[in-house]
Specification:
The complex is a heterodimer of chains A (about 290) and B (about 1200). Chain A has 17 helices and no strands. Chain A is mainly α and about 290 residues long. Chain A has a domain of about 80 residues: Tetratricopeptide repeat domain (Serine Threonine Protein Phosphatase 5, Tetratricopeptide repeat). The longest helix of chain A has 17 residues. Chain A is globular. The relative contact order of chain A is 0.06. Chain B is an alpha+beta fold and about 1200 residues long. Among the domains of chain B are: about 300 residues, YVTN repeat-like/Quinoprotein amine dehydrogenase (Methylamine Dehydrogenase, Chain H, 7 Propeller), CATH 2.130.10.10; about 90 residues, Thrombin, subunit H; about 80 residues, Thrombin, subunit H (Beta Barrel); about 100 residues, TolB, C-terminal domain (Neuraminidase, 6 Propeller); about 50 residues, no CATH class. Helices cover about 25% and strands about 25% of the residues of chain B. Chain B contains 28 helices and 62 strands. In chain B, strands 29, 30, 31, 32 and 33 form a five-stranded antiparallel sheet that branches. In chain B, strands 1-28-27-26 form a four-stranded antiparallel sheet, with no helix packed on it. In chain B, a hairpin with a 3-residue loop joins strand 15 and strand 16. In chain B, helix 13 runs antiparallel to helix 14. Classes of the chains: A mainly alpha (about 290), B alpha+beta (about 1200). The interface between A and B is large, with 86 and 75 residues. Chain A: It comes from Tuber melanosporum (strain Mel28).
Chain lengths: ~290, ~1200
């Protein structure tokens, strides 16, 4: 039986992880799980730990593990800490040796994509066997390549065999937010459902809701959702970045959020992007000069 | 008969006759045991029993208006009763055998009876006489009924015939003797054929033969010329009649025993019949086919009756009666935001818009749903998919999922419907719904293609399911309600509430009302009980006010309850309704005909209570002020709830006011009221309250009023008021009250008085002892002398040294005890008008003293602040923003999206492709092309000042969606074309639109001008220009407006800059000429009228001080031309008068008041008309030609005189 199906043991932990409820994942009681599900659940727990910034602990814990699931996680933990070169090497060797392992596929592809080697990541992911996470990752990579058409195709494919899955719904929303129009509203429904259900509400889902509302032009509502996200985690970088965007659109002050973002995540794409554009401005502006 | 709903059942012996009361929820049942019972079927109580008949009572009927009923029994008697006096009024004797049925006429004072003596008789119950005996049947007549409108009677007999009788003759004979002509009499005599006895009062019109056995019951159709009869041949026969004949139409076959009674449904095309086969059967009137049948196990049915008004029936059987409905009358409906979706009586789906109070045409027909005559039970609406789920009780429960058409175009049959079996079905998410199956106790979660995605076994036996918040269901079990998480398949919370039938969610989704038959329980979304209340009358429906008040309807009231459980009645109801929405004073509901209705309600009471609970005194105050809420109930409510001080504000009645004032310790009011009423009891209470507050002055007054001298004395003693105590002693003396005198003397320590008093009452021994004790030996002697005794004669005990009364240390009597400053509630203050926030005050800072005048200004009075905000309508001067083609290469080709791998074009790039507007290019991050565009359109060359605007637009262009863990967020692009998906038409959202420029930019600039904050003003207006140079608008008229704003900002910047320049040199006497010139030029730019006045006043005053009287007079005239009233005008008039007398200028300046000229925005010198000039392509500011090629002083961005195509703000 598919362990992620609605009857499966891993559904709760899977949904919690992808809903961004990392502490729920870490605290999830896995003692009653069957043997074949123990590794996947451990993987989720370790990934959650990395996601909340405990990469170092994970790396230490996994020292010397040669199980590909755990080895690739260790590489990921190291990658998150910044020692990218070594991590990429490990991943490359793992991709060579055990490219059928789902964890290797997903973590490997994540690292490869982050390294800018998206095509390699896609090739690796193409070997997946019914892994929704792989599908979601493909969708994200396609979207980051601005290939909304291919991302949509991937989602529609996945919907045929896993319509009810949280990940497919999320991936569909990602694509929907690119397509726009009526899809904004649909994405909003997905995120709103997650964000407003107490058991699945988390900053990530609230941000999703807010982003959808922002694209729908419903700024006050989006602000409420972002405030809620920031209440749950005042340093959530994406919440801060979106809050800045929203504040500008609503004609409000951004200084507070901007300094907060600069402190917590100086390398957030928003900041790097803006810094880059600031340079571009100066360079471009220098080309013009008054005649007199 | 799945949908027959039993409302009431009684246990008794065999019921032979039934009658509904037309107005009240009463039913009369006549029993085989000679008893007549009167039941309240709504409450289920036996109201009365009437036992005067001897033997079975078969016929019974209520009068439709009078408090009367009639009965007929096997004792041959007809009795007329009053249910008010609860006794038999009189008995009509005459029948010679059992009386089978009795009926009142609907308007005439007649009773119709049928009897086993084969006759039908008509009685007048007013004069208690028999007025007609109709013979003709030759066996027992089992039933006879009046026609509801015409002068006809129909009768049924065991002789197997049904007869229709014409009684118009009888009516004429007994109607008031109007002038009847001879012809009329003749006509009447000849019109009807006399029967064999020469009787023309009632004649047989038709004899209907068709039953093979005796006929037990017959009745007319309420509106159509139809008759229905039931007989021992087990058939129910339908007959039709015309003016001249009557015939059998059809037979309803189905009863397998004698059919005992039958009738037409009062409102629907249905026939109901009962029989000894223990069944109630319902037939379709038009098809004569069986619709439903209901069987009792052991009881043969004997009689059936219909309620004349509402949809209720009653059937009598061997063991009592049952009152039932054929169908649920609750229309299926669902509410989404401002729309109501409901199924009407024709089974059409309609919607109703609460905001506009408009009902849509039919959108769908649900004729095919379920069985005919069975209305849908529930409706659930899905706004995301615009689809509905409808359930019907047919076949053990079915549901259908139907998409609503986009436009309501009439009652079309739905095409793409998905159906299945289930008792309840509700949407639980955008793309999921839950179907509950009662028999298997399972809940299927289905997707929109109707395939089951998961199945849940209910945790306990439940009756119904309701939406329970996102991802959850509320399961209603017989004694509990369960909040169930669908995803995790587990019970989240459980609450013991029994018999919940409906769930109504509040608009904000935070609370739900659980309605059971007699209880309303309010719970939070996590199923925690907030409050609960009980109603004796059945609860029908509920809806939430936006402020968190639940309005609910019972069978006969609309009531409300606050979250804290406070409840009350809003109004009474004539008919049952189902509340759908409440908005202010409007209450929307559906009636039993499933028609939307709007009721006016008075929400004052619950609003007030809510405000009280929330301590929202402003609102309470406005409610008190605007509505007459003064009722005993609200006062006692306030008192009970511990708000006597508020209740005090309502009350006029002095007595109540006094009580309330005492309760809240408001002595002032209490004293006032006590004075008004002046009753000892009140003074006593007042004194007690005042004493406890330490307000001894009030206590004193109260005691004085009460003439309570003892207490007064004591009060004076304890407050140390010896003076008054002395007076009390005097008063006591006057009153000849020795005890009081004694007491006062003790208080005062006045021994002499005491002895004197004792002597006066001949108590010499005591006087002596007192004197002795105080060592007043002379006095002792005197006493002894007076009593003729000597010291030796007296033996007195040892006397200790008397204690003098203590002296008051603090002169308490001078002042009341200090109390904590009487804390008036906000509310009281507000009522006294002391709260400033209650009055809407103009927040204009009156202190801003306009332009500080230069030294020696006329009278030092600045520009006062009462400037009017005049909407300027200046036309933007020749500023070309035409639709000239751009030189920009328009990348018009479509992006051919290849299907292969590789990287696509980002949306930002699309934006840049799709738009010729600089702002859009900025949002796309394509700063280079944006600058190119600005350079070409408006000659922009100095971009540095625009950097904040560039960055602002760019920063707001993208959102960051966290997606896969460990990867950077997904970037999405914020569009202003929200509904567009065509990649060639999508465009970015640009912050700060024209509206925000208008309200934030311009207004702030004007405010800066008004506040004389010129540096700031220049910055603000320049900000406006920088904002508009990178902006987008929605239509052509907005382009015009943008031009106008640019023009205004430019004029203001020039004006303010001139004035700033002047201030720099104002103190430099050598620059006096320039000073004057600049002040004159300051009046040139086109400003809003009040601001122009500022400039003119300033120029006028300066010219005046510098003794340039001609100039001053000129400006004075212009000031006066603009406004001839107010202080400015007065000043101007004075200056004008003085100046004109002088008539010369001290300093000659370059300002020709008669010439046409503009001001060069760089040098601030005139450009006379006809002189050459260059313009800035963006602002339109004019310059002397020598400034060509330099940067515009106004915008600081654009190049003066640069070639430009004009700013583009609109994409097409």
């Amino acid at each position: 039986m598919d362990p992620f199906s609605s009857e499966g043991e891993l559904l709760t932990i899977h949904n919690a992880f992808h809903g961004g409820q990392y502490s729920a994942v870490i605290n999830h009681d896995t003692s009653g799980l069957s043997a074949e599900n123990s590794i996947p659940s451990t993987v989720y727990k370790l990934r959650s730990q990395i996601a909340i910034g405990q990469a170092e602990e994970v790396a230490i814990e996994l020292e010397g593990q040669d199980n590909p699931d755990l080895a690739v996680l260790k590489a990921f933990a190291e990658y998150s800490q910044g020692s990218t070169e070594n991590a990429v090497k490990i991943v490359e060797s793992l991709v060579g040796s055990s490219s059928d392992n789902a964890t290797v596929q997903i973590i490997g592809a994540t690292i490869l994509h982050a390294e800018g080697r998206s095509e390699e990541a896609l090739t690796l992911l193409s070997r997946h066997q019914g892994s929704l996470e792989a599908v979601a990752l493909v969708v994200q990579i396609r979207l980051s390549q601005n290939r909304t058409d291919l991302a949509l195709k991937e989602v529609l494919n996945a919907k045929r065999w896993a319509q009810d899955s949280l990940l497919v719904n999320l991936a569909e929303s990602w694509v929907g937010l690119r397509i726009g129009g009526e899809k904004y509203q649909q994405a909003y429904y997905v995120y709103e459902e997650l964000a407003q259900t107490p058991s699945t509400s988390a900053p990530r889902t609230l941000i999703g809701q807010a982003v959808a509302e922002l694209h729908l032009g419903r700024l006050p509502e989006a602000e409420v959702a972002l405030q809620q996200a920031l209440e749950k985690n005042p340093k959530h970088e994406d919440a801060l970045a979106n809050m800045i965007v929203l504040s500008i659109l609503a004609g409000k002050e951004i200084d507070e959020y901007l300094s907060s973002l600069q402190n917590t995540a100086p390398s957030h794409p928003f900041l790097t992007d803006v810094a880059q554009k600031s340079e571009l401005f100066d360079k471009s502006a220098a080309k013009y000069r008054a005649k007199a | 008969m799945q949908s027959m709903l039993t409302k009431f059942e009684s246990k008794s012996s065999r019921a032979k006759g039934i009658a509904f009361h037309p107005k009240r929820p009463w039913i009369l049942v006549s029993l085989h045991t000679s008893t007549i019972q009167l039941w309240d079927y709504r409450m289920g109580t036996l109201i009365d029993r009437f036992e005067e008949h001897d033997g079975p009572v078969r016929g019974i009927d209520f009068h439709c208006t009078q408090p009367l009923f009639v009965s007929g029994g096997d004792d041959y008697k007809i009795k007329v009763w009053s249910y008010q006096t609860r006794r038999c009024l009189f008995t009509l004797n005459g029948h010679l055998d059992y009386v089978r049925t009795v009926f009142f006429h609907h308007e005439l004072p007649w009773i119709l009876s049928s009897s086993d003596d084969q006759t039908i008789r008509i009685w007048n119950w007013q004069n208690r006489s028999l007025i007609c005996t109709m013979t003709g049947h030759n066996h027992y007549t089992m039933c006879a009924q009046f026609h509801p409108k015409e002068d006809l009677i129909v009768s049924a007999s065991l002789d197997q015939s049904v007869r229709v009788w014409d009684i118009s003759g009888l009516r004429k004979k007994h109607s008031a003797p109007t002038s009847m002509t001879f012809e009329d009499q003749m006509a009447r005599a000849n019109a009807n054929q006399a029967d064999m006895f020469g009787n023309t009062d009632a004649v047989v019109k038709f004899v209907l033969e068709g039953h093979d056995r005796g006929v037990n019951w017959v009745s007319f159709h309420p509106t159509l010329p139809l008759i229905i009869s039931a007989g021992d041949d087990r058939n129910v026969k339908l007959w039709r009649m015309s003016e001249t004949k009557a015939w059998e139409v059809d037979t309803c076959r189905g009863h397998f025993q004698n059919s005992s009674a039958c009738l037409f449904h009062p409102h629907q095309d249905l026939i109901l019949s009962v029989g000894e086969d223990k069944t109630v059967r319902v037939w379709d009137l038009n098809k004569r086919t069986a619709v439903q049948s209901f069987k009792r196990e052991n009881d043969r049915f004997w009689v059936i009756a219909a309620h004349p008004e509402i949809n209720l029936f009653a059937a009598g059987h061997d063991n009592g009666v049952m009152v039932f409905k054929l169908e649920r009358e609750r229309p299926a409906y669902a509410i989404h935001q401002n729309n109501l979706f409901f199924v009407n009586k024709e089974k059409h789906v309609r919607s109703f818009d609460f905001t506009q109070n408009i009902q849509s045409p039919s959108m769908l027909s649900l004729k095919k749903l379920g069985a005919p005559w069975v209305p849908p039970r529930t409706l659930s609406y899905n706004p995301a998919e615009r689809s509905i789920l409808v359930t019907s009780p047919t076949d053990g429960g079915t549901y259908e999922l139907i998409n609503l058409p986009k436009d309501a175009s009439g009652a079309v049959e739905p095409t793409d419907t998905k159906r299945g079996t289930g008792n309840s079905a509700v949407f639980v998410a955008r793309n999921r719904f839950a179907v509950f199956n009662s028999s298997s106790q399972t809940i299927d979660i289905k997707d929109l293609s109707n395939s089951t995605t998961k199945t849940i076994k209910t945790p306990t036996n439940i009756n119904d399911i309701y939406f329970g918040g996102t991802g959850c269901l509320l399961l209603c079990a017989p004694s509990t309600v369960i909040l169930y998480d669908i995803q995790q398949k587990k019970t989240v919370a459980e609450l013991a509430v029994s018999g919940v039938k409906y769930v109504v969610w509040s608009n904000d989704g935070l609370h739900a009302a659980l309605l059971s038959k007699h209880n309303v329980t309010i719970v939070t979304k996590t199923l925690e009980q907030v409050s609960s209340l009980h109603e004796t009358i059945r609860i029908k429906s509920a809806t939430w006010d936006d402020v968190g008040v639940l309005l609910y309807s019972t069978l006969n009231h609309i009531k409300y309850t606050l979250l804290n459980g406070d409840n009350g009645i809003i109004r009474t109801l004539g008919e049952t309704i189902y509340l759908t929405k409440v908005k202010g004073r409007s209450l929307f509901c559906l009636d039993r005909q499933a028609k939307p209705k709007l009721l006016d309600i008075d929400p004052t009471e619950y609003r007030f209570k809510l405000a009280l609970v929330k301590r929202n005194y402003d609102e309470m105050l406005s409610i008190i002020k605007t509505s007459n809420l003064v009722g005993q109930s609200i006062i006692s409510y306030l008192q009970k709830k511990g708000y006597p001080e508020i209740a005090l504000q309502f009350v006029q009645d002095p007595q109540t006011r006094f009580e309330l004032a005492i309760e809240c310790g408001n002595l002032e009011v209490a004293v006032e009221m006590a004075k008004e009423l002046d009753r000892p009891k009140l003074w006593t209470r007042l004194s007690a309250e005042a004493l406890s507050q330490g307000n001894h002055q009030v206590v004193e007054m109260a005691y004085q009023k009460l003439r309570n001298f003892d207490k007064l004395s004591f009060l004076y003693l304890v407050t140390g008021d010896t003076e008054k105590l002395n007076r009390m002693a005097k008063i006591a003396e006057h009153r000849n009250d020795y005890t009081a005198r004694f007491q006062n003397a003790i208080y005062l320590g006045d021994v002499e008085t005491r002895i004197q008093m004792l002597k006066e009452i001949d108590l010499y021994p005591l006087a002596y002892v007192t004197a002795k004790a105080h060592g007043l030996n002379e006095e002792c002697e005197a006493i002894l002398e007076a009593s003729g005794l000597t010291e030796e004669d007296i033996r007195i005990p040892e006397i200790s040294v008397p204690i003098p009364p203590p002296k008051a240390i603090v002169p308490t009597h001078q002042k009341n005890w200090p109390l904590r400053a009487a804390s008036q509630s906000f509310f009281e203050k507000a009522l006294l008008g002391q709260v400033e926030s209650m009055t809407i005050e103009d927040e204009a800072p009156s202190g801003t003293n306009g332009f500080a005048m230069d030294e020696g200004a006329v009278d030092g009075k600045g520009f006062n602040g009462d400037l009017l905000d005049v909407e300027g309508e200046e036309d933007a001067a020749g500023w070309d923003m035409g639709d000239d083609d751009l030189n920009l290469e328009q990348v018009g080709e479509l992006a051919v999206e290849t299907d292969g791998a590789g990287v696509g074009m980002s949306e930002a790039e699309l934006w840049a492709r799709n738009s010729p507007i600089a702002a859009d290019h900025v949002a796309a991050g394509s700063f280079e092309t944006a600058m190119q565009l600005l350079n070409r359109q408006v000659g922009a060359v100095n971009f540095e000042p625009l950097k904040p605007r560039f960055m602002e637009i760019y920063q707001a262009s993208k959102t960051y969606l966290p997606a896969t863990v460990g990867l950077p967020p997904l970037v999405n692009y914020v569009r202003r074309t929200i509904e567009e998906t065509d990649s060639r038409k999508i465009l970015p959202a640009i912050p700060r639109d024209l509206e925000s420029v208008r309200t934030n930019g311009l207004q702030k600039g004007f405010a800066a001008m008004k506040a004389n904050n010129l540096e700031e003003g220049v910055k603000i207006f320049r900000g406006v220009l920088h904002n508009l140079i990178l902006a987008t608008v929605q239509n052509k008229s907005e382009i015009e407006e943008a031009k106008r704003i640019i023009r205004t900002a430019t004029e203001y910047i020039i004006a303010m800059s001139i004035e700033l320049e002047r201030r720099d040199i104002a103190t430099d006497e050598s620059q006096a000429k320039r000073n004057l010139e600049l002040s004159a030029y300051f009046t040139k730019p086109i400003l809003e009228l009040p601001h122009r006045q500022i400039a003119l006043m300033s120029a006028m005053k300066l010219a005046y001080t510098k003794k340039n009287h001609v100039l001053a007079a000129h400006f004075a005239s212009r000031v006066l031309a603009n406004s001839s009233q107010g202080k400015n005008a007065e000043n101007a008039r004075k200056i004008k008068a003085v100046s004109e007398r002088s008539g010369q200028d001290a300093i000659e300046i370059e300002y020709d008041q008669f010439a046409e000229f503009d001001i060069c925005a760089a040098s601030y010198t005139p450009i006379y008309s006809g002189q050459p000039f260059v313009q800035d392509p963006f602002t339109g500011a004019k310059y002397h030609p020598r400034y060509k090629g330099s940067i515009c002083r106004v915008s600081q961005v654009t190049e003066i005189g640069a070639p430009a195509s004009g700013l583009r703000l609109l994409a097409q």
